[in-house]
Design a protein that fits this description.
With 251 residues, the protein is an all-alpha fold. The protein has two domains: 1-56, Orthogonal Bundle (Arc Repressor Mutant, subunit A), CATH 1.10.10.60; 61-249, Tetracycline Repressor, domain 2 (Orthogonal Bundle). It has 14 helices and no strands.
Amino acid sequence: MEDHQNFKGLDRSVRKQKIIDTAAVLFHKKGYTSTSLDDVAGALGITKAALYHYVGSKDELLSIIYTQAFENVFRDTHEISGMDLAPDEKLRRIIRNHIKNIIIKDLAMFSVFFSEESQLPENDFRKIGEEKKRYTRIIRDILDEGVARGLFRPVDSRLQAYAILGLCNWIYKWYRTDRVLYKPEQIADHFIALLEEGYLADRDTKSGGHRSGPVEARDRGRPRSKEDLHRRIKEHLQAVSELVDALKRGD
């Protein structure tokens, strides 16, 4: 429990942020519906009446958490997407940022973000849906540019973006701050390698040769039909599922 005097000694903006952060942790641990404003006030060592000086309701607290979550999502992403970099390097940086500085850095906030969306008021729910589309669009634009420049395989950019974001976002389900099996940098490196190289052993490597360069590998593995593309995507998604299961087991 927080010391009441310490809380009162903080600047008003800091006090409000502390309320938001405390609510995110409680919503993460207990669930939104099982957490009351009394719980939030108690965790801060203040009265519920004092809490009302900063937020008007539990719904408002949840909406603020979602707003701040998207501020975190877009803060560095816009900067990276505007850099004078090749699409493949932009995507690496966005994936690394998404894993380390968005999901893992604010695990409680994003656990709430992914699990409590249905609790939002209707207007906020629609707004969050639009923001998700906007973020996915940034990823798709980078993918489309990479395909146009011959850096990426010619695949459906929407489906590819969903696969990338799904892989990164699912971390909130298994990452534990009290039992860290892998450092954030290790996770980012592994996920980027999986996305760029796949999970099949390289045929040249198995025969004792060197791995092919990116262009050779891309040409060799290029899907030749829509059915082939769908098959390959299913294989990659299965690999992601198996990886998540292994990480949860601590393999």
